[in-house]
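Report of the visiting student (M.T.), summer placement. My assignment was to run the structure pipeline on a short list of targets and document each run. The first record concerns tRNA uridine 5-carboxymethylaminomethyl modification enzyme MnmG.
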Amino acid sequence: MNEFDVIVIGGGHAGVEAAAAASRRGSRVALVTFDAANIGAMSCNPSIGGLGKGHLVREVDACDGIMARAADAAAIHYRLLNRSKGAAVRGPRIQADRKRFAAAVRAILKSHDGIEIVPGEAVSLTVRSGAVSGIVLSDGTAIFAPTVVLATGTFLGARMFRGEDRESGGRLGERAATAMADQLRAIDLPMTRLKTGTPPRLDGRTIDWARLERQPSDDEPWTMSPLSSGRPLPQLACAITRTTERTHDIIRAALDRSPLFGGAIEGAGPRYCPSIEDKVHRFGDRDGHQIFLEPEGLDDATVYPNGISTSLPADAQAALIASIPGLERTRIMAFGYAVEYDHIDPRALDHRLALTELPGLFCAGQINGTTGYEEAAAQGLVAGANAAALALGLDSFLPDRTQSYLGVMIDDLVLQGVTEPYRMLTARAEFRLRLRADNAETRLSRVAEATGLLGPARLEHVRRREQERTEVDHVLARSITASTLAHTGVGQDGSRRSAREWLRFPDVSLRDVAPELADVMTPTIVEALDDARYAPYVDRQEAEVAELRASERVALRADLDFAAVPGLSIEMVERLTAARPATLAAAGRIRGITPAALTAILLHTNRRAA
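After the run finished, the structure tokens were exported:
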């Protein structure tokens, strides 16, 4: 009864994807969570996707994950970010109805076979013969499994801060996971503290919307997942306002009561989502900071003010809200706060997201030093798939950085480590021209199918999509003469090119070369069009990818003594020893490792092998 293949601790975004992925690979899964009613809850902002993050959501979806479908089921606002820029850096993002999103997550999770929800607190891991063998709950119940996925979010050893108030907990109204944190520290895992925060919640009925700039949902009927049939919910507009000089004066006057500036919080916060007090302190010359007012639901008056995360005292929060245009008479429904929590140095993990020092233990989400729902879900997918692989003797799921943002993130984490919460950005991917949000299925479907991650409905969709792409490619392969396109202004040199090649010319449109496709414009056609336009640049990157692949074939011994490599600085030796790269290419991705250092490592490795 209490024996499983995989135990997942935590019912957040990492936990549900881990449980679902393990289930799809055939595992019996125990999902342990404080409260089953909070599975899939959105702890902070009510949005999914964004720049870099939207790529991760699409990749998780290409592997038949939960997040994108749940997002579409609950979406009340769609917006494609960076629309005016190239396809590689556009970020699909939705605003979700919080309650409907969590309900959709639970419904999709319930459709997976072999997952048992276990309410309770996991207080300790059990270890047998040097490997994980299960967990013990706070009531003494033992649950056995050869693999455990820790997806504890911000709950591990967590404390909440608001002004001078301190409270144990990882989310308002929920307790911290202190016993598990104590055990992980006791077994000498490399752990430090990080910090995150959330803004006050506002009563939308008391906001002066008429004074604010409105931001409507996109008209184009795109969705986060191709399996979603349209948009089931009414769409709401967001609004934009800004802080003022008066706001900044209020914040500066209260900094001496801020736990962030008073030294109470030790952990670093997310660089790309700083608190409003941090913004005002660091960017004192700014006359205002933008705030997006985001509705939290169709039948919920709560509004999330994105951009003013804070842990200032309640009276200071009330004053700063009243100083913002449109919010002067707004009622605060819940005050903001900061959370400080434990995380494991991700360099202690391998690319499976498995802890190298304790076989059978996998980690996913904020415990690995990341921030964001999307990063957590992506890690949950990988950790769950690999926990199932270890338990059942299957092949590991190892997406690499040339193939996916999943691979970029995991590579960055296990090789670089973190000094602040890690957020996915398109700039982190050196091969981002290949890694568009709109081609995630093309990049990952076959890998996911081979790994056993795709369910029947997804497989049927993949087959239909592949057939459509074959037909589209056939149309784009047909030959067209320059004279046929004289009206576009192309040179009349008598040349003949394929429709795909002509699309690289800036004044040639799809309607010029394939009007039958232009009349339809399905997502598959849009992807093929982007492929054609990006082809010259992607071809150049292929050479770089080939070079990287060659370096990946140069394996480094697990017991390689980097201190014995001539020419390496002490700092390089420390970073290489901490990361333990498995290949020369992996060593090259560690911060501060120079080309000369790589040459020295290669020569040393070759001498040892001779």
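The chain has four domains: 6-147+177-192+358-451, 201-339, 468-550, 562-609. The CA atoms of residues 136 and 430 lie 43 Å apart. I thank the supervising group for their guidance throughout the placement.
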